[in-house]
């Protein structure tokens, strides 16, 4: 089964409760595969080497069937996309939200 990798969990603080809650409904992306969050919500470390190693392990099985969801911290998105494409002979499919059609669109890259 295909996997939709989410570089970083999108969270926001609820105005009423003060609790961290899911920022977006990502369920429309489930039609592309199972959702898998790579990094928790929060700021990224200045030293990204440990995070990079974590992403390399999490993305080791990235394949032609899988997708990267363009969401989260820009550094996490870029690093995740680089590692995923390296693990898949330079090929990567990304999903991005189109607010006009209210759905995800897939874009394929071969770098």
Structure description:
The chain is of the alpha/beta class. It has one domain. The chain contains two helices and seven strands. A five-stranded mixed beta sheet has the order 4-1-5-6-7, with helices on one face. A two-stranded antiparallel sheet has the order 2-3. Strand 6 and strand 7 form a beta hairpin. The longest helix is centred in the last third of the chain and has 13 residues.
Summary?
With 111 residues, this protein is of the alpha/beta class. Helix content is 21%, strand content 33%. The protein contains 2 helices and 7 strands, in the order ββββαβαββ.
- Read across the widest sheet, the strand sequence of neighbours is 4-1-5-6-7
| Total helical segments | 2
Principal-axes geometry comes out as globular
Terminal Cα separation, in Å? 24 Å
Classification by helices and strands? alpha/beta
Helix content: 10-25%
Compute the number of structural domains.
1
Q: How would a crystallographer describe the biggest sheet?
A: 5 strands, mixed
Q: Which percent range describes the beta-strand content? A: 25-35%
From the alpha-carbon coordinates, what is the Rg to the nearest angstrom? 14 Å
Average pLDDT reading: 92
Question: How many DSSP-defined strands?
Answer: 7
| Unreliable runs | none
Helix-strand pattern: EEEEHEHEE
